[in-house]
What we know:
By secondary structure, the chain is of the alpha+beta class. The protein has one domain. Helix content is 16%, strand content 26%. It has helices at 6-15, 47-52, 71-78, 224-229, 281-288, 304-316, and strands at residues 92-94, 99-100, 108-118, 121-126, 139-140, 148-153, 160-163, 166-167, 179-184, 200-206, 235-236, 240-243, 248-254, 260-262, 264-268, 274-278, 295-301. Strands 2, 3, 4, 5, 6, 8 and 17 form a seven-stranded mixed β-sheet that branches. It has a six-stranded antiparallel β-sheet with strand order 1-15-16-10-9-11, with no helix packed on it. It has a four-stranded antiparallel β-sheet with strand order 7-12-13-14, with no helix packed on it. Strand 13 and strand 14 (260-262) form a beta hairpin.
Amino acid sequence: MRFNLLPGIFSLFLALPVVASALLSINPNPDVLLSPESLPLQLPRTNAERLRLRLPLMKPGRKLQGLGSPVKQMIEEAVPPRPSSAPIPLCVSLPASLVRLPLTVRIGRQTCAISVSIGGTLRGFLAPTLNPFGEFNAIQQDRAVALLVRFPYKPGTGNVSEVDLQMLNGPAGGFKEMYLGLVVGYSDTNNTLGPGSRNYVYLSATSQAQPGGAPSLGESTINSFSMRTGIAEAVESAVWQYCPVSQDLRAFWVNDGAQTVPLKVVFKADSDAAFVLTGDLDAWRRAFGFFPEAVRAWYLSSSRAQLLSHVHRRFSAFR
Length: 319
């Protein structure tokens, strides 16, 4: 007697549930994190070393925070606790990494805090703190303790590309005067970002990399992610583009082939809470999870009152 097994097998396949592929993590296993006692102490101690790493020079008579200090102080600063005043993380993403600048510009340079607005409402400012992996991960409501950045700009010079944002009060643990830069993501397939790619980069503390060049990796570059994990990843620092006419500051990534890609910012608010940037938000979501676009604009401001007035004017146009 012959038995036709095909219908039964076909029915079995139809009955099987569709199993969604597991989402990826933006970070490595926490087991790779360096203990406070083993964190590298190879931070720049002299101006000669800082020149080699493209870091700002130390002023005469001033010691870099955390350097030359007892090991106990280094341990305390290595992994700072999250500030109690920090609000619950928010899921945000920023189309084209749009950032607005204030109307007042200092001659030669601009000093600002970075704030986040969601749905037209000011939610807070980027905090000068890192998660255990060395990535910016918090929004701070108090501007007095927000991250401050400085960049060179002279009125009348027109659009400025390849801008470095130097941090004036960056995270503890040796990162205070580094740059607000981008670090290649741990789960990336390569250093290329753009349409069709799920690759991403972290918003982290970095040394100054060569402007307009491909991602830098080597002894002349350091970043907070690699220093916290011991995993070497390439960085770019001169990723910001400023337009004085529209007062926009946007983030761009330079691929290995010199292709410049506009980026979007996402605040991944879960166990991997961190700010990341990607060239294809849809591709990134398919790999790492859906996080809605909740932010219309990111602002830089030297005055809270000025910021609120500027936010009101800008968002009235969307109504």
